[in-house]
Amino acid sequence: MRISLAAVIALLATGVTGAPTVDEGKDADAIMDQIQSEAMGALVKAEKSTPRRQGSECSVGNAHIRRDWEKLGQQEKLDYIRAVQCLADTPPKLTQYGWANKNRLTINLGPITPRMDGLSPVGSIFEWNPRCLRRDLTMAASRNLNAENLLNLTVGHASHNVQLFQDELQGTRPDPPFLGMHGSGHFSMGADGTDIYASINDPAFWLHHAMLDRVYWAWQALHPAKKGKIAGGTVMREPDSPPAELSDLLDVMGLDNNKPIEDLLDTLGGTPLCYIYG
Ligand SMILES: *[C@@H]1O[C@H](CO)[C@@H](O)[C@H](O)[C@H]1NC(C)=O
Ligand SMILES: [Cu+2]
């Protein structure tokens, strides 16, 4: 079933529901497809009216396309898995970061903030702590990974500004408390997936985070006037630090050059990002 986004927006405009409601999870793919095509349409339109950033060659037509796993063919899926395995056999750029080479499901990093039974915290993010990757899959946590939340984030109440959007996505809106799309994905994986540093060990993390980035990308495309804004936020784990500014450098700990936040907000900015989802 294809649901018209225009119809959803019209429904929202009535103010009756406050947030769009949809039947069940089965609608999520159809809605994502619809949001995807609206986002692409908006990007193409924006490109016609806004001059390209000076010195940038990046455009919708030549951008890299990050494709949905569900849309990959059999061979492409096998290639992806092979690439992940190749990465597992590649020496890490940060000495202790990464998987042990011999056994691909042996992980090392963290955990430092375990939330699940059986995960004992270690002293530092990078402490050498080889162990088997653990998952503890649960449906209980996936309640906010649904079509309703997706609509709320992209065209509903939570899409009205970046503060509402990020609070809804991160599950940090105060009332009523909930995990949000981001936390829901982590807690659905359970075990190592719930640790702020160790969760990246699990290849499923990358699919989850790519999807979060895709939802953010779609939100930006559908709300071009707000896409370059950031809100609230202090440095993670330092609640007393001043609110982040667009010119603040994002520390990638030696994996690449640190960049100011503003250079990384536009996926078509060419500074250096140049990608779309497809
Ligand atoms: C949509 O997001 C808003 C803003 O965060 C929130 O107050 C509201 O409860 C959400 N609606 C649904 C149905 O999740
Ligand atoms: Cu995460």
UniProtKB/TrEMBL annotation:
PROSITE patterns: TYROSINASE_2
Keyword entries, A-Z: Metal-binding, Oxidoreductase, Signal
InterPro entries xrefs: Di-copper_centre_dom_sf (IPR008922), Tyrosinase/Hemocyanin (IPR050316), Tyrosinase_Cu-bd (IPR002227)
Domain Tyrosinase copper-binding: 202-213
Pfam name, any one: Tyrosinase
Signal peptide: 1-18
Domain of life: Eukaryota
PANTHER family: N-ACETYL-6-HYDROXYTRYPTOPHAN OXIDASE IVOB-RELATED (PTHR11474:SF125), TYROSINASE FAMILY MEMBER (PTHR11474)
Name of the protein: Tyrosinase copper-binding domain-containing protein
Source species of the chain: Apiospora hydei
Species lineage: Eukaryota, Fungi, Dikarya, Ascomycota, Pezizomycotina
